[in-house]
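Hi U.,

Before I forget, here's the chain from the pilot set. I'm dumping it here mostly so it's searchable later in email.
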Amino acid sequence: MSDIEQGSGEVAPKITQSKAVIAYLAEKFPQCFSLTGEAKPLKIGIFDDLATRLENDERVSKTRIRTALRHYTNSWRYLRVVKAGAERVDLDGNAAGIVEEGHQQHAEEELAASKAKAAEKAAEKRQQEKAAKPEQKRQARAKTPAKRKPAGKPAAPKAAKAKPVNLQQAELNQLKVGQQVQVKVGQAPMPGQVVAVERDDVQVQLQNGLTMKVKAENIFFS
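Structure:
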């Protein structure tokens, strides 16, 4: 008996967390869902199959299944395997269609957007931590007795504040492979390099190593 199931005669509680629902699905349908390793592209319309197979299952509701399924198919691990020509599987692991070109493009866009959002959050966290350091130093100095400066010794001049850099929006025909640019990710631009220039999109590599496709309107020259 699994850890998810209860002992005989006991009513098992409802599963409400998406991760727990996914674990339950992976136990029920191991040829379809997995928690580690490479995921498998799922059959289109697999939610309807789940709703039918688990119709009398008191552990999970259709709403929880739908939410967990969305969480599963939006994960980086899943989006990476949605490649044109790959075989989709049903609940029992049987072949159930092929991934089309449009599906791969959509998965790549979702993956790039998700990674960009994660990079933006990481950058915001670093900025918050950086902003908090002066206050921490000030508090530390307040607890430490101030040292008296020798008489007659002039104070060192303060460094001039760096002026903000004016950014110029780039045109598609101005961009070339290898150019150093500023890429607007979220609210703030990030340094990056042009990797490829396509018909409508520009592929850039950010300073943190992330490669993504953006429109020319989101690229600037410093």
